[in-house]
Each structure stands twice: as structure tokens, then as C-alpha cells.
Amino acid sequence: MQLPATELALVYRLCGRLLLREVDAPALELLRQPPVRATLERAAPGAAAALDAWDDEAQREEFTRLFLLPEGVSPRASAWLPRERDTLGAGVARVSEALLAELGRSPDQLPGVGRLPRDHGALLLELAALALERDPRRGASFVKESLAPWLGVCGRELERTSRSPLYRALGVLLATLHPRPLPLCPEAS
After folding, report:
1. Count of H helices and E strands in the chain?
2. pLDDT, tens digit, for every residue of 66-87?
3. What is the pTM of this model?
4. Which of 28, 100, 113, 178 is most exposed by smallest CB count within 10 Å?
5. Alpha-carbon dihedral of residues 33, 20, 97, 130, nearest 10 degrees?
């Protein structure tokens, strides 16, 4: 999927938001906007109907099952990258820290994601969005180093295991954005 850097940044932010927390009223309003709604429906038929017949309780349960329980779909790079598992994502964390420094940001300046582990998908997607907005080439490099090696695999698993059309659509988007795993950034030393 090829998108201009600014559009890709918006998609990354939306995906990161969905990986981070349950859908609240403002997020649901955004998801129901015609362009977002149409994209979700193309990704997972039935997503638009699910947005129309929104069931907070069912969606909270699905979010918990997918992202918070051990047998769910971990939104952390270290869960998907064999050589990152033993180091709890140290290689990806190092790349994230370097980008934060380049951007002149501290984790505290990233509302909602700054306290997450450095290999959490929501944080990585936010950092990618920031980098793409500032310098599309640097953003693309960060994506290649920190997201491309694992996000598509995570997305395909999310698509496979989700009972919710919304989270299936999220899985399809992630898998479409990163269809093939790439070699990981340099290993942690």
C-alpha cells in the first residue's frame, strides 16, 4: 500500500490508537466518518455494520481478549521477533530511543504512549507518524527498522483471530501496510 507520508501518518495513528485502548466515544465518531468507515469496510466486510450496531460491552471484551490476555495478539514487537523475545525488544527499543532523540522529544511529550514499553506497537506507530510528518525519508527508514519486520505478521494474526469486524479490519490494514517481514534492525548489544 503506497500512501503519501501525511496520509500514512494518519493511518498509523489510527492503528496505534486501536492497539492501545478500547474504542471510546471520540474514537467511535472518527471510525464512523465516511472515509474511515469505507476503508474499514473494504478491509473487513461487516465492519460498517458493526460500527452502526456498536456494542460497547462486546467490543471491550474483544479488546481485552485480543490485547490484554496472554493468549491474545500481543501488540509488542518482542512477541513477534524471535531474537527480540529474549531481550524484551531491546533492539527495537534502541531504535525508538534514537528517533525520540532525533525528534527532540522525551517520552513524556507523547500523550498516551510515552509510558509504554519501547517496543509497543502504539508507541512505534506514533513515532513513525511523527517522523513521517517531519522527514518522510527518515520516517520510512524508521518504519523499515521498527515496524516492517513484525507488524504485518501481527496484523495477519489479528485478522485470523478477531471475532470483531473492526479488529479484523485493523489486522488487514496492518498486514497490507507491511505484507512481508523484513530483517530486523541491528540486534541489541
Report:
1. 11, 0
2. 999 999 999 998 888 876 666 6
3. 0.87
4. 28
5. 10
